[in-house]
Amino acid sequence: MKEMRKLKITELNRMDANDFKASDKLPLVVVLDNVRSLHNIGSVFRTSDAFRVECIYLCGITAIPPQPEIHKTALGAENTVDWVYEQDTIKAVDKLKSEGYTVYSIEQAEGSIMLNDLQLDTTKKYAVVLGNEVKGVQQEVINNSDGCIEIPQYGTKHSLNVSVTAGIVIWDLFNKLSTGF
Questions:
Q1: Rounded to an integer, what distance in angstroms lies between the CA atom of residue 40 and that of residue 161?
Q2: pLDDT digits (tens, 9 = 90+) for 27-51
Q3: Contact 74, 46 (CB under 8 A)
Q4: Secondary structure of 22-90 in HEC code, one letter for each residue
Q5: How far is it, in rounded angstroms, from Cα 179 to Cα 173?
Q6: pLDDT for 180
Q7: What's the pLDDT score for residue 179?
Q8: Residue spans of the chain under pLDDT 50
Q9: C-alpha distances in angstroms, 53 versus 4, 137, 159, 177?
């Protein structure tokens, strides 16, 4: 078996915060609809930084930075990824739609599109709404979305942690939308 050497952090050629702010972003906004866990929020920031998500909307009871518990998992990504607070998720969705975004709720719903079947237009902008850890995305928000995306699941549990869901969805949309950075 070929031996592989783990890279040192200095070998990763990571951009600094200023370069990140100035870099091209994925045409994707992540909307958190009443997410309770500050660790989940931090994790979404960190994943959004990794894939250069344009912005995160923090809605309802979703906490906003600065918070030590967000920082614990975000590791500073709360300072690089742009974010907006909006009390009402429906208003956030309406604003994004008025700015030309196609908005999908990530939810198990009648008529949802399986993530692996989702086809996107690389000339368009998208937003995804991720919901509360217990209740999911509010039905009114689903009603106001352009559609729902569902992650296929094959075990006995048919739910994933919101930060895991964010990671899967953001990675998949990055692959479908990225023209290469």
A1: 8
A2: 999 999 999 999 999 999 999 999 9
A3: yes
A4: HCCCEEEEEEEECCCCHHHHHHHHHHHHHCCEEEEEEECCCCCCCCHHHHHHHCCHHHCCCEEEECCHH
A5: 11
A6: 74
A7: 81
A8: none
A9: 31, 20, 24, 11
**36-69 CB burial, b ≥16 within 10 A, e <16:** bbbebbbbbbbbbbebbbbbbbbbbebbebeeee
Using alpha carbons, list the distances in angstroms from residue 156 to 65, 159, 160. Answer: 36, 9, 12
Give the residue from 61, 58, 55, 33 showing the smallest Cα distance to 143. Answer: 33
My answer on whether omega of the bond before 27 falls inside 30° of 0, hence cis, is no
Is residue 1 packed enough to be buried (19+ CB in 10 Å), middle (13-18) or exposed (0-12)?
exposed
Cα 159 to Cα 136: distance, rounded to the nearest angstrom: 10
| Both structure tokens of 16 | 């600094």
Select from 164, 128, 175 the least CA-distant residue to 43. 164
Question: How far, in Å, CA of 109 to CA of 6, rounded?
Answer: 42
Q: Which residue has the tokens 């967000």?
A: 70
- In this structure, CATH architecture of domain 23-177: 3-Layer(aba) Sandwich (3.40)
For residue 136, give the DSSP letter: B
Phi, psi (rounded to 5 degrees) for 75: 55, 40
